Here is the input.
Amino acid sequence: MADKGKKNFLVQGSVLAAAGILVRIIGLIYRIPLTNIIGNEGMGVYGTAFSVYDILLLISSYSLPTAVSRLIAKELARKRYRNSRVIFLGACLFALVSGGIMAAFTWFGAEFLVGLLEMPRAAFALRTLAPTIFIMAFLGVMRGYFQGHGTMIPTALSQIFEQIVNAAVSILAAWFLFKRGLALDVAQELDGVNASAYGAAGGTIGTGAGAATALVFCIVIFMLYKPTMMRRVNRDRSTRVYAYPYALKILVLTIVPILLSTTIYQLNSIIGQLIYAQYYGEGYEAIWGSFTGQYQLLIHVPTAIAAAIGSSIIPSLTAAVENGQLADARTKMAAAVRFNMVIAIPATVGLAVLASPILSMLFRRADTALASQLMLIGSSAVVFTALSTITNAILQGIGRIWIPVRNALITEVLHVGLLSLMLWVFDLGIIAVVLANILFSISVSVLNYLSLRSVIGYKQEWIKTFLLPLAAAAVMGVVTFFVNMLLQKVTHSNTLSAIVSIIVAVAVFAVAVLLTGGISSEDLTRFPGGRKLSALAAKLHLLRS
Here is the structure.
């Protein structure tokens, strides 16, 4: 597990980002048959169970990969290998306790938790996720351990295996349990009550199966690496070795602010649902299914890039700050933000232009009219979610782990007020939830940037990071719109038109952003296979001199 991986975090981040995109694509693909099996109501139940699960997972273990990664990277930068082992073992103990407690709370408190969201049918699905919370705690420690060593490959591969198993088991279990629930509905003369609840629970079973597969994979990789780790530990002659109580203490002190920041950030979604549930009352499953199962599902695909780069930059920034290399840290920050914007900005424009064709292609049997409207209005969530995510990770990487907590808390108060205003005063319905989420991300991004400028002197470069990619994306959007419209008239096939339009959009943006100088030859060399990409772009005369 080479430490040299820290020297190019963008390569490592690209590996994890590629895996993240693949994972999201698999998730997108399996959600299609899942939606067709259990319907929008079932997806509303499924989405509600996952909203609660995400919060409980955050509280128990979601911050573990980031915390473990940062602490281990810090010790490795000082070549204190015994301390890194103590931190790892302490994190395993923390996972045992926190994961066990939260899994038990989920199992016994499922009815109460989903009752708060006016969706009692989600209790069965939430209960099936209880064992997954316990598994994910240990999986988070393993992934954080590998990331702290500067390699994202075990995390990337485990995510892919996790999602493949998740997809297969979810579809089969949802199909089987939906049929069982439907039979109960017929027997009890009910209108789909059991079918949607059982089908949603089937979908959540796959999550646990996938997590268990990923954990087994990570344990195997860890056992293969263990002899190397023990040789390092045995050669370590550092005098300051942590006792386990102290290791647990610094672990908790690192976890708590990261936990609070991510929890507040995630609470944004569930608080939005709570407020919307009070505004709408019972029976909003189908609307919420369109919001979470279609709109948010597509929004989260490109934002996987930000999460991946965020994970990869933390060890690198931690090492740079520990060694006093602040200029290097600022350079890495700028590269991380630019890399994200080159993906997020065209994704925003593309989703807005092709919202209806893409959704119609993916969800042929479902009503996509509402999701298309939400996508047209809210595709900019991609840019601002990516920006807020990467700036959170940067602040955590440089050790300012309490600042994201403060910024997220300030923003959440603003989010609640704005959402309530848009619902009860302006009566915007589900559109208010979309707009409030975007405003939340904008506010976090602005506050994080001001914090970075204050604590480390970071100044954002605007032209190459935002304006040139935006100009290239605008050209892409216009071309893609007319290409799709023409193809629709000629082929009369929405699927073919959408696929060709997406390919055209990628090609047009790549050419436009290179010609405008939004991506330079030096930028290309930071990507996996970047030298070959740079040489190809030069041959095609796409690089500005």
In short: The chain is about 85% helix and 0% strand. Residues 58 and 472 are 37 Å apart (CA to CA).
